[in-house]
Amino acid sequence: MASGEGERRNCAVCGDRATGYHFHALTCEGCKGFFRRTVTRSTGLTCPFAGRCEVNKIQRRHCPACRLQKCLDAGMKKDTSRSSVRPPPAFARLGPRTASADALRRDQHLHGAANHQVHQ
Amino acid sequence: MASGEGERRNCAVCGDRATGYHFHALTCEGCKGFFRRTVTRSTGLTCPFAGRCEVNKIQRRHCPACRLQKCLDAGMKKDTSRSSVRPPPAFARLGPRTASADALRRDQHLHGAANHQVHQ
DNA sequence: TATAGTTCAGCATGTTCA
DNA sequence: TGAACATGCTGAACTATA
Ligand SMILES: [Zn+2]
Ligand SMILES: [Zn+2]
Ligand SMILES: [Zn+2]
Ligand SMILES: [Zn+2]
């Protein structure tokens, strides 16, 4: 269980608590979602301060341009080979997820762990 | 000399450290599991780069299609044969089935210049 | 002992909703 | 925007079997 604990897992972009590796970088959920949304749209973001904004947990929302830049600096990138080429299966879901199908799927992995979220 | 270490056994597919022969080829645990899972569920994998992806330890996850192709090129195959009580050396040396299919695949794969570089 | 099969925590990425 | 959830894939460790 690595009681060492000395190793804090912080987001490489804003320093918030990281939940794991996302897009090849250790980041928090916020920067993960931000990157996914932003990198595709790439709406010519421009920083009003010549890209000198600090990106931390508090101010990360203030300047998307600098946040995105820091994401890229941290090594984040979309895996072009493995994305958008496989989503077909779980689409076209009209109502609430049918517990039956989902349960069936998840049952395969629910043998021992109740939730396979990142422990912490 | 339990671990002379001088002789490194590398995976024929990705070059990672091999753990032994798996499905008739010297491979690592990763490619072993990948092949077992994929060869049966061959869900029409397609490479977004015309099958010219390099398959090494770092990038082997990027393109399943090319990874599987390299597995087959390395001679990997499920031994779905009958009793499987023993691996007969004279394994259907008369059947053109494997030879032709194999050659065909290899031909398709090794056609263009392998100079194509994938991201990263 | 060696290889094939099984398990499962973790990774990658997308979706939902407050 | 981001926490929570959904799913498929990966591979180290383990088990089964010859
Ligand atoms: Zn962050
Ligand atoms: Zn800025
Ligand atoms: Zn390998
Ligand atoms: Zn490929």
TrEMBL record, chains A, B:
Keywords, alphabetical: Activator, Cytoplasm, DNA-binding, Metal-binding, Nucleus, Phosphoprotein, Receptor, Transcription, Transcription regulation, Zinc, Zinc-finger
Domain Nuclear receptor: residue ranges: 8-83
Gene name in the database record: NR1I3
InterPro entries hit by this protein: Nuclear_hormone_rcpt_NR1, Znf_hrmn_rcpt, Znf_NHR/GATA
UniProt keyword annotation of Transcription regulation present: yes
Organism, as annotated: Lynx canadensis (Canada lynx)
One biological process term in Gene Ontology: negative regulation of transcription by RNA polymerase II
PROSITE patterns named among the record's database cross-references: NUCLEAR_REC_DBD_1 (PS00031), NUCLEAR_REC_DBD_2 (PS51030)
Superkingdom of origin: Eukaryota
The name this protein goes by in its record: Nuclear receptor subfamily 1 group I member 3
